[in-house]
């Protein structure tokens, strides 16, 4: 089931779908209910009992929490340490950058590009982990509603 929630799919396809435009609105669940990966995920979950869904939801929530903490930590490390080191070294020896080969803007652009890609991949992984946890939460809520409807009509 997690194949439909692959990080690469988010990175490659997110900006090129109609669903990508919905991120600027206040309803994010309606487009997700129409998304192929959610439809497949909900179909796969349909054969599980409530106890299995509860376990998977808890598992996905824990995973999403850990992935998000990892993203925050690495994003902080990839931004704070280099910026702090850059400012500190620049105060000690302003000419060191030219000696190290950073007088060429292309070198700086490459380094910043690598950092941006690394942080982007971590962010996409956190997004997808949360997406999977949200799917399980939605399935759990859908089942509660279905039980309530059966009870009220009986």
What is the element string, with H for helices and E for strands?
HHHHHHH
Counting helices, strands and paired strands, the structural category is: mainly alpha
Total strands: the figure is: 0
Oligomer: single chain
Give the N-terminus to C-terminus distance in angstroms.
Answer: 34 Å
Shape: elongated
Mean pLDDT: 82
Strand content: under 5%
Helix fraction bin: over 70%
Radius of gyration: 22 Å
Low-confidence stretches: none
Q: State the helix count.
A: 7
Largest sheet: none
Description:
It is a single chain. The chain has 154 residues and is mainly alpha-helical. Helices cover 80% and strands 0% of the residues. It has helices at residues 7-13, 18-21, 29-34, 36-45, 50-92, 96-99, 105-153. Helix 1 (7-13) crosses helix 7 (105-153) and helix 5 runs antiparallel to helix 7. It is elongated, with a radius of gyration of 22 Å. The two termini are 34 Å apart. The mean pLDDT is 82.
